[in-house]
Amino acid sequence: MLRAFEAAARHESMSRAATELSVTHGAVSRQIVALERLLEVRLFHRRSRGVQLTEHGTRLFHGVFEGFERIRASVEDLLGDRQQRSVTISTLPTLASRWLMPRLVRFQIQNPNIVVNIRTGIALDDLADPAIDFAIRYGTGAWPNTASTLLLSANAYPVCSPSFLEKHGPMRTPADLLATPLIHNATRQWWIDWLLAAGVGVKALSGGIVVDEYGLAVQFALDGYGVVLARDPLLERDLASGGLVRLFDIAVTPRFAYYLVTSQVRKLEPEAMLLLNWLNQEPR
Q1: Distance of CA 153 to CAs 86, 156, 189, Å?
Q2: Partners of 158 in the beta sheet?
């Protein structure tokens, strides 16, 4: 009844309303008469050429038209969600900004209907959560209830800003680093491993700056506060631009690396699998 009323009011004609709704003129007329009886008000003035809303009819039309518009908009939103699929990745802030984002630009050009959501943080998100499709994590590749594929190995070597080197250099041997401020990410063990590989006998380190997020360690180095161990895939732009300089040719491959990680208890949606495979095939 409301649909017949709204169409007749909008067209000011029961005949045109009938054409729009693919029914007969009589069917529209009967629906409107039934609605007038139900509401106990007159909704239209009948004219020889069409109909005209009464005061009651005008009030009802405003509400009904707005209601149908809201329904239409909601349906279009749902259809839009179906057409525009999304993938959510959980990863570390530094990897997202320095390695992942430049590559996602190319993925978006090839797959414009897939929205990629990046969820960053230091804590490990639970991949059983349906809100997260897969993760890129830094570690040994072994996490409970997950499957892992190696994405990036990261060679480590000392880097610092040119201004820091000018102030604290020259550094002729790796042992010279023991007298300079070192920037540590979460643990001092990374630096101990590199120094041992460089032939510097050291069992423990003290002092320096210890931060829990690698991006902050890199920023401290860029700002000239100390020397940080590079993870080479993440610092390519800084080394190429001269913002950071490499101090020694000696590099070690840490026990940790970057892995693509999926849940063993959930199957990936097709768009998430597409992105996962695409990242696997990206040049390192």
Answers
A1: 28, 10, 18
A2: 229
- Banded pLDDT at 103 (limits 50, 70, 90): confident
Assess whether 224 and 198 both reside in one domain.
yes
The reply to whether the predicted model has a pTM over 0.85 is no
Task: For the beta carbon of residue 173, count every other beta carbon within 10 angstroms.
Answer: 11
Rounded Cα distance, 5 and 33, in Å: 10
Which tokens hold the place of 201?
């006998």
Contact assessment for residue 120 and residue 147, using Cβ atoms and an 8 Å cutoff: no
Tokens of 162: 């040119």
Question: Which phi-psi region, left, alpha or beta, contains residue 24 (left: φ > 0; alpha: ψ -120 to 50)?
Answer: beta
16-37 core/surface letters (b: 16 or more CB in 10 A; e: else): bbbebbebeeeebbebbeebbe
Residues 133 and 160 placed together within one structural domain of the fold: no
Q: In which region does residue 2 sit, left (phi positive, over 0), alpha (psi from -120 to 50) or beta (all else)? A: alpha
Specify the number of domains making up the chain: 3
pLDDT exceeds cutoff 60 at 98: yes
Residue 281 three-state SS: helix
Domain co-membership, 265 together with 150: yes
**Same domain (yes/no): 150, 261:** yes
Residues 77 and 91 in one domain: no
Of the candidates 59, 9, 10, 16, the residue with the CA atom closest to the CA atom of residue 32: 9
- Distance, in Å, from the CA atom of 210 to the CA atom of 201, rounded to the nearest integer, reads 21
How high is the pLDDT of residue 188? 86
